[in-house]
Amino acid sequence: MGPPMTVPADVPAGHDPLIPTDFAGWFTAITETLRRSGRRMAAVTALWGVVPTIGGAYSTYLTTGVLAEVERTLPENPTGRASAADLELVLSALGTFAGVFAALVGVSLLLGYFTLAGIASAMRIAVYDAHGRDLALTDALRFGARRGLRMWGWYLLVSLCVMVGLCLCVLPGMYLAVVFALFVPVAVFEGGGQVLARSLRLVHRSFGAMLGRILLVGAVCVAVSLLGAQLLAMTGLAVMSPQDVTVVSVGAEAVVTWVVGVATGMVLAAGLLVTYAETRAGDRDLVTSEQLI
What sections of the protein cross the membrane (predicted)? Predict the structure, then answer.
């Protein structure tokens, strides 16, 4: 059973710090979670983000090198009717582009494990801190490592479903991205073999409210990512073409990507956790968020 619940001193009596009752409470619960646990959440997401950052930077460096080589082999300023050799070069370049794109998608999916593990670790910390429980960072990291494996398989399935849905007139993919958005907290705190079905049911319990909350969390993450991209562009260090690749530009992009990853990971962890706790409480199977410990 563990020790009795000890609610932090700044939380009113009878108030659950992770289960809001309305939109204003939802927003407050997220901001309070980040205020209360932000440093520790940042620490675990930063540690788990090292491998994806290095892997992404190395992939960028190799990819731009391949694309630069392909660009050099293409005919310059073609005029008139293309020769068979020119067509062969173009087809070869298209094949290379397709291969590079597939490789990048594959690497991104593989590195997704580390991102998910970081989010799981951050959620664990947020729940413990919300109820005044002690949790060492090493314990949070170990928890993330275990849950990350569970989440990664579902992540691959969700990614496949969303990509197929986007190919089918876009809207089906957007719908699947919303209804499966809670697969992360469901996999972290419940598990089982019905993670996607459970996420869909929780979202549809109050679809309008959940849609707004999930889209708002996603919008904040997109805004943070765009801010990072704008920062790189303003400093002239953005890698926009193979000619822009230098050790400095790749390194700067890696650092900004790492910082953005930490920020978005924290927002996702806090936003999805509070959204999940709210809808699960409304589903009448969660009396207090302490049950998530």
Answer: 41-61, 89-114, 152-173, 179-197, 209-235, 255-276
User: Tens digit of pLDDT for each residue in 243-276?
Assistant: 666 777 788 888 999 999 999 999 999 999 999 9
Token pair for 7: 């609610």
Q: Name the residue type at position 150.
A: R
Does a structural domain hold residue 2?
A: no
Q: Indicate the pLDDT class of residue 242, thresholds 50, 70 and 90.
A: low
Residue type at 99 in one-letter notation: G
249, 238 in Cβ contact below 8 A? yes
Mean pLDDT score of the chain:
86
Positive or negative: CA dihedral 293, 217, 263, 159: positive
Q: Which residues of 73-101 are buried (b: 16+ CB within 10 A; e: fewer)?
A: eeeeeeeeeeeeeeeebeeeeeeeeeebe
What pTM value is reported for the model?
0.85
Task: From residue 191, give the alpha-carbon distance in Å to each of 43, 271, 280, 293.
Answer: 25, 19, 14, 14
Question: How many angstroms separate the CA atoms of 281 and 289, rounded?
Answer: 8
Q: Six-digit token pair at 262?
A: 């930490």
- Identify the CA nearest to 207 among candidates 284, 279, 274, 155: 279
In a domain, 246, yes or no: yes
What is the number of domains present in the chain? 1
* pLDDT interval class at 180 (50, 70, 90): very high
Q: Name the region of 2 (left: φ>0; alpha: ψ -120 to 50; beta: rest).
A: left
Using DSSP's 3-state secondary structure scheme, residue 280 falls into: helix
